[in-house]
Write a structure and sequence with these properties.
Blueprint (H helix, E strand, L loop, with lengths): L2 H21 L4 H5 L8 E3 L4 E3 L1 H14 E17 L2 E14 L2 E16 L2 E11 L3
Parallel strand pairs: 1-6
Antiparallel strand pairs: 1-2, 3-4, 4-5, 5-6
C-alpha cells in the first residue's frame, strides 16, 4: 500500500469513525486524533479555536450540542501526502440532531495533518457551510 493509500484508509477509517462519534456526542475519539503539539487551530462553521485549550473546549461544546448521528460521510475532493505532512479538501455530509433538533447539512472542510509518533494527527481544520 502506498503512503497515499494508507492515508486515505486512515481518513475513511479512524478519522471518519472519530467524527461520527463526535456527532453522537462523544468528543474523545476526535480529541485522540488531534495533535497535542502547538500550533493547533480550528476555523469552524460554528466557532473558532486557537491552541490546545480552546480546541479542547470546542470539542466538548460540540459533543454536548450534537447527538443521534444518522449520517456522516467524508467526500474527499483532493488530498496530498508529503512526508510527515498531509492535507484534505472535502465535503462532510451530515445528518444529526443539534440541541435536540434534527438537521442535515454539508460542510466544506480543509484539514492539515502531521505525522506524530507514527500516526496521523489533525493540526488545523477550516470548515464552513456549503451552498445548497
Amino acid at each position: 500500500m502506498t503512503a497515499h493509500e494508507e492515508f486515505l484508509a486512515w481518513v475513511h477509517g479512524p478519522l471518519t469513525d472519530a467524527e461520527r462519534a463526535l456527532h453522537d456526542g462523544d468528543p474523545e475519539p476526535r480529541r485522540a486524533l488531534w495533535s497535542r503539539t502547538e500550533p493547533v487551530s480550528v476555523l469552524g462553521a460554528w466557532r473558532n479555536a486557537i491552541g490546545l485549550r480552546e480546541t479542547d473546549e470546542l470539542f466538548d461544546f460540540l459533543g454536548r450540542s450534537m447527538s443521534d448521528c444518522r449520517r456522516f460521510e467524508i467526500e474527499v475532493l483532493a488530498f496530498d501526502v508529503n512526508g510527515d505532512a498531509a492535507h484534505t479538501v472535502a465535503f462532510e455530509h451530515t445528518a444529526v440532531s443539534v440541541d435536540g433538533v434534527p438537521r442535515s447539512y454539508t460542510l466544506r472542510v480543509t484539514q492539515v495533518y502531521r505525522r506524530e509518533a507514527g500516526g496521523w494527527r489533525v493540526a488545523h481544520r477550516h470548515g464552513d457551510t456549503a451552498a445548497e
